[in-house]
Amino acid sequence: MNIKACPRCGSRNVILHAAGITGNYKCLDCGYIGPIIMESDERLRIKKSNSNVAK
């Protein structure tokens, strides 16, 4: 599962702007509007988190 996040503030509270016609996203927390949203795989984040706990 991919997680989309705002490149400005890191919030995951993002939506497609202008009904997706422009390809831009809008962050509902900081107001950023733009085409680039960071995506990461939640499984990778969980795996890294678990490996830090084991140490």
What order do the helices and strands come in, and which of them pair?
Blueprint: E1 2-5, E2 14-16, E3 25-27, E4 33-34, E5 38-41, H1 42-54
Antiparallel strand pairs: 1-5, 2-3, 3-4
Short structural description:
The protein is α+β, with helices and mostly antiparallel strands and 55 residues long.
- Helix content percent band: 10-25%
Tally of discrete structural domains: 1
- Shape type: globular
The Rg value, from CA coordinates, equals 14 Å
Strand order of the largest sheet: 2-3-4
Descriptive report:
It is globular, with a radius of gyration of 14 Å. The protein has one helix spanning 42-54, and strands spanning 2-5, 14-16, 25-27, 33-34, 38-41. The protein has 55 residues and is α+β, with helices and mostly antiparallel strands. The protein has one domain (2-54). It has a three-stranded antiparallel sheet with strand order 2-3-4, with no helix packed on it. The model has no long low-confidence stretch (mean pLDDT 77).
